[in-house]
Amino acid sequence: MRTIIAGVGHFVPDRKLSNKDFEEMVDTNDEWITTRTGIKERRILDKNKGTSHMAAKAAKMVLKQTQISADEIDLIIVATVTPDRPVPATAAFVQKQLNAKNCWGYDLNGGCTGFLCALATGSQFIETGRHQKVLVIGADKMSSIINYKDRTTCVLFGDAAGAVLLEPSNDDGLGVEDFILHLDGLGADYLEIPAGGSLQPASRETVAQNLHFVYQDGRTVFKHAVSGMAEVSAEIMEKNKLTNKDIKCLIPHQANLRIIDAAAKRMGLNPDQVVINISKYGNTTAATIPLAMSEAYQERKIRKGDWIVISAFGAGFTWGSLLLKWAI
Ligand code: UT7
Q: pTM score, two decimals?
């Protein structure tokens, strides 16, 4: 049994924050942000809504597209670093909003590689024959964990969600072909939220010291991301004996245009073989890949039978790639 992506959807909030807006907030400028990252604007969710709001909207788009009812869903996996609450899992709030009565579910924290980890995990439930319809969602409300006074992080991130429906297929040629995933805890201190966990629970002091916001040593993460994402993207292609001519497109995690370009170059891809939307949304963490995938599908840039490589790098460090043949 193989796993295919049977539908894909996304949601982005209406409110935009442009590079110009940041010029009023911190010591930065449009030129620095554009040349260093490729980002022009990002979306921001209302203060009174959580990640599950976006996740459920993206999932509803998938249900409408695939014409299946919420009751048919067996499992919901939500990749996120910004759960609605620490407990329970955001999957529970998504289940409630979808009114999906016959499923179980859980959250998965794989940082910016979260969607890729969730897709790899979800596909195993299909391949074993245990489940028929698995919703895999990548969703993050990054604005809830960003310090808008810290120019080194605040310009980078935005809010969004993307979702796919996984189903079994007997067609040997289609669906998930292979994945390679890595985890290296030596990277843990370079991209983190220092407090709010069991090691350093929330206190007046942790709040006063801004320890509940994202901290990133950008230069170190950049160095590892460039080599990690480029290598693993090329590795999955070579391992499966595919060349740059066989690949329709790379759908990379959208953290920095320079990281994406390095991966595309290592794979020998032309610019038109890379799906890029970072200028519109910035880094939406677990949401970047399903969001880019959904837009590419809507724009008919990917079609049935196309070989697609997905790759990501993020907190952990965690990184990886996944190869699939598009099935819809
Ligand atoms: O998605 C999860 C994984 N995350 C990533 O993949 C992100 C990886 N890192 C990056 O994308 C890049 O490192 C950044 C975009 C975060 C930063 O770009 P950089 O070229 O690595 O810049 P830098 O951190 O080396 O900083 C260069 C200079 C510094 O000034 P000094 O020390 O040279 O005087 C920064 O203080 O740019 C300064 N700077 C800024 N200037 C204007 C940092 N942020 C800003 C800003 N506006 N927003």
A: 0.97
